[in-house]
Amino acid sequence: MDLNARRALLDTPSVIDLNGFVRRLREVTGLESPWFDPLDGGVEARLLVLMESPSRRGYQNGFVSVDNDTPTGRRMREAFAAAGLRRERWVVWNVVPWYLGDDQRGRNPTLGERRRGEGWLRELLSLLPCLRAVLTLGAPAREGWRSLGLDLPHIAAPHPSNTNLCARPWLTAEFERAVSEAARRVTDA
């Protein structure tokens, strides 16, 4: 689906409240945050896939999505499909919901940026009443989630970026195991 068609779905029932949240976040912070992907589970999602901050590609096209044309997006699509994790089961978001970096390259969040994003994450959780588990991708996401101290099953996984998995290929199996565990937790028997 092209970006214009996806943008036309921003206010469909499954994501209207989530993208209203993004509009408010943008107004309050003055920072650009990507939209929730209307092809994901929206407010009915059972799994929150939590990353650290939007990728440059997500920032440029305006969506936090596994469909972003990146190695990370490809690995996520492949692992989710292999685990039998249906798209309507998840929603993707970031501990720091605005892009960090410049036009050439993103960067990791600072502790202060992560803490600033945590208040927004708490607010987001109130819009996701069906959540059964959280899958964190990478240390900043894991630490951001843990700092909230919430009682919701949490599965930690390595970040599926080229930078991480090409340098440490053994982490690919760990990532895939974590995705499979997340799928088990949110799939009806």
Give a description of the structure:
It is a single chain. With 189 residues, the chain is of the alpha/beta class. It has one domain (3-186): 3-Layer(aba) Sandwich (Uracil-DNA Glycosylase, subunit E), CATH 3.40.470.10. 43% of the residues lie in helices and 12% in strands. It has 8 helices and 6 strands. A 4-stranded parallel sheet has the order 4-2-5-6, sandwiched between helices. A two-stranded parallel ribbon has the order 1-3. Strand 5 (133-137), helix 6 and strand 6 (154-157) form a beta-alpha-beta unit. Helix 5 crosses helix 6. It is globular, with a radius of gyration of 15 Å. The model has no long low-confidence stretch (mean pLDDT 92).
How many structural units, i.e. domains?
1
In the CATH hierarchy, what is the architecture at level 2? 3-Layer(aba) Sandwich
| Main sheet specs | 4 strands, parallel
What is the residue-mean pLDDT, rounded to a whole number? 92
Structural class determined from secondary elements: alpha/beta
Q: Helicity, in percent? A: 40-55%
CATH homologous superfamily assignment: Uracil-DNA glycosylase-like domain
What's the arrangement of strands in the largest beta sheet? 4-2-5-6
Shape: globular
CATH first level: Alpha Beta
Termini distance?
A: 31 Å
The H/E string reads HHEEHEHEHEHEHH
> How much is the radius of gyration in Å?
15 Å
